[in-house]
Specification:
159 residues, four-stranded mixed beta sheet, 2 domains, Signal recognition particle alu RNA binding heterodimer, srp9/1, 31% helix, alpha/beta
């Protein structure tokens, strides 16, 4: 039985340490753990980074230099729930540096990792039992790339 929770392993092609440093620079209270290096046994060059352990927002990760065989896709994404527009803007701007906005709060960072930057209350608004409020908010949400919190609230209120 697992006694230490779980860790998300992110597979990179030679960018593991760079990516770990990038994510740790974005999230407060980030921590670096062990850095493993390839030995003479390979398959990477001896001394080069094999994996970097790090933690952001209490979530454990390992960035692994696994090679070019696998890449990230939208089937897995990380959700960041933000308290206000300032946080939405901060995470959006930092994570799209070298990446791109996609739609409905989704983005791909410069490593191809998908993120959802979600303002507090959005899931409640689109799931509201009042079908008109939910519809207006959903329509507004679907028209956005990065979320505009004030516009979502106006749509919810029917303004």
């Amino acid at each position: 039985m697992a006694t230490d929770g779980f860790t998300t392993c992110l597979w990179f092609d030679g960018q593991a340490e760079e990516a770990a440093d990038h994510y740790m620079s974005i999230f407060p209270d980030a921590k670096r753990g062990k850095v493993g290096r390839y030995t003479e046994a390979g398959p990477g060059p001896a001394g080069s980074v094999l994996a970097v352990e790090f933690e952001v927002n209490g979530q454990k990760f390992v960035a692994l230099n696994g090679g070019p065989q696998f890449t990230f896709n939208e089937a897995v994404s990380f959700q960041i729930f933000c308290k206000d527009q300032e946080e939405v803007d901060y995470y959006w701007n930092r994570l799209t540096e070298g990446g791109q906005g996609v739609a409905c709060g989704w983005l791909k960072d410069k490593y191809g990792v998908s993120w959802q930057v979600i303002p507090a209350g959005l899931t409640d608004m689109i799931g509201d039992p009042d079908p008109e409020k939910a519809k207006r908010t959903t329509e507004a949400m679907l028209s956005m790339t990065k979320f505009d919190v004030a516009a979502l609230r106006r749509a919810y209120a029917g303004e």
